[in-house]
Amino acid sequence: MPIRYFFKQLLLPPGGLLVLLLLAWWLRRRAPRLAACCLVLGLGGSWLMSLPVVVEWGARQIEREPALAEAQWGGLAQRAQAIVVLGAGREMADPAWGADQPSHIELERLRYAARLARASGLPLLISGGLHYGKPPSEARIGAEVLARDMNMATRWLEERSRTTWENAVYSAEMLHAEGIGRVVLVTSAAHMPRSRWSFERNGLQVIAAPVGFMGVANGRPLGGWMPESKAIWQNGMLLNEVAGLIAYPLFYR
Length: 253
Hints:
InterPro entries: Cell_Envelope_Assoc (IPR051599), DUF218 (IPR003848), Rossmann-like_a/b/a_fold (IPR014729). The chain is α/β, with parallel strands linked by helices and 253 residues long. It has two domains: 3-62 and 227-251, no CATH class; 70-211, Rossmann fold, CATH 3.40.50.620. It is 51% helix and 14% strand. The chain contains ten helices and seven strands. The strands form two sheets. The chain has a five-stranded parallel sheet, with helices on both faces. Strands 2-3 form a two-stranded antiparallel sheet. The two termini are 26 Å apart.
């Protein structure tokens, strides 16, 4: 297991909030005031993380790229040379399928990329390496779904990457080798700022094609102020992107 994965899960919610609650219990006699502070931060953070309204507000701060209008799809061939779709993990050994399957986030990206490819005629590259080191790669699983379920061929499979930065590095190597420098990039809306930054730093011109927006009206009762489990997961994704936007310029100059 990569050490970065361990620290990421430890520091980001809910791991970081659980650490605060454990600290509150451990410090309750040694430092009551500090323990109370940890308790308030842990419980308060957990409550905020569970609110759909926080998801909506947070996503609007991160989702900077507008959606591509459908009227623009057909003209993408005049503006770009390929479509790159980024992997997003996989579900292991689903008995219904008898094999690993793309995560629902990756399926959303693949479906959108297939629509763009049909409308524009541009070739597809899927980027995504081994999930925790076990084959098949995210790219290969995605290509199989495109071929079998959407009747869409994939020209390139980038199967080495483990991070968004590596998605960009290895995809750029493959595309530059074929004289391609302009791409349509398909990924989740909250993930797009970090992805665009990475691909542009690796010499590719990017037309953003974000999908899966979370910064839209949440449609929940009471305006999204009632806690729900899905919001915890969504807010965790948003915090991961915030951390990435801060860390990437520091580590990948």
